[in-house]
Amino acid sequence: MSKQSIDDEYILEEKVPSPEEHFNLRKQAGLTPPPRPDNETSLKNTWFGVTIRTKQNGEAVSMGRIIGDGAIFCVVVDICTLPHHQRKGLGSKIMRALVEHTDKHAPNAQLSLLADPPGKVLYNRMGFVENKLETPMVRSTFFKAYARGQREE
């Protein structure tokens, strides 16, 4: 696991956060929190992930990861930063680490993501473009149930 100092306040480590940190990061950043029973398995199946922590107390404040086969198809997921640490360039640092890792270890991979409108500027800066040729589709029983209030956090 590699760690690098970003500035006086943060460290970036090439490691996913703990399941509890992952749950809290997603929830506090306004993303749907993952189902707790599946969270640990999901994190273990990460191809590559990074976490930004504070130097002061080691708190996980930002993260991102890539899932997929590590060769041809890779998907960026879980890009999130705690609200009081946003607008400090942490999302850019996360994305840069993910893109650089993919370029080095899977240069022929299709790296894709589903972007919320606020993230489009960041993703465009990292070389992502909208694919107007395809219709994005997703099938997720978890997110449907969560939206209906049928899943506990």
Automatic annotation (TrEMBL):
Keywords tagged on the record: Transferase
Keyword Transferase applies: yes
N-acetyltransferase domain segment(s): 9-149
Sequence segments annotated as region (Disordered): 1-44
Any GO BP annotation: UDP-N-acetylglucosamine biosynthetic process
Single GO molecular function: acyltransferase activity, transferring groups other than amino-acyl groups
Coiled coil: none
Pfam families: Acetyltransf_7
Basic and acidic residues composition-biased segments: 12-24
Gene3D superfamilies given in the database record: 3.40.630.30
Entry keyword Transferase: yes
PANTHER family from the UniProt entry: FAMILY N-ACETYLTRANSFERASE, PUTATIVE (AFU_ORTHOLOGUE AFUA_6G03350)-RELATED
Designated name of the protein: Putative acetyltransferase
Species the sequence originates in: Meira miltonrushii
